[in-house]
Design brief:
Elements (H helix, E strand, L loop, with lengths): L1 E2 L1 H21 L6 H21 E2 L3 H28 L3 H25 L2
Antiparallel strand pairs: 1-2
Length: 115
Amino acid sequence: MKANFFLSILSVLISALAGYGFYAANSGEQFCLLLAIGSGLCFAITLIGALGIKIEGRSGNINFRIVSIIFFIIFLLSNLIFGFAGVKIAPYIIINGILLLIFAIIEYGIVKSNE
């Protein structure tokens, strides 16, 4: 597994801008900072997986990137729903936390299967 630092930094910057976008769109809400930090963190983790990390072996690399992109889209939809439907702190943390852990388990399985 190799990391491309330039693409990883770009992924973090894109995620920070997306997080700020959620903050700006929900600036009058009570938990807008939580939404901004949570969405930025989830986006950063999935975008780094999609762009900034390369797994040894062609099939492992493709699977790693596809799973990262799918979870990026899931997190985007989840954060849009929470952002425009109103954020409640407990469901937001629980749903995004479970999705993030499922993402980590799948990615770990992909990495371990290619060793």
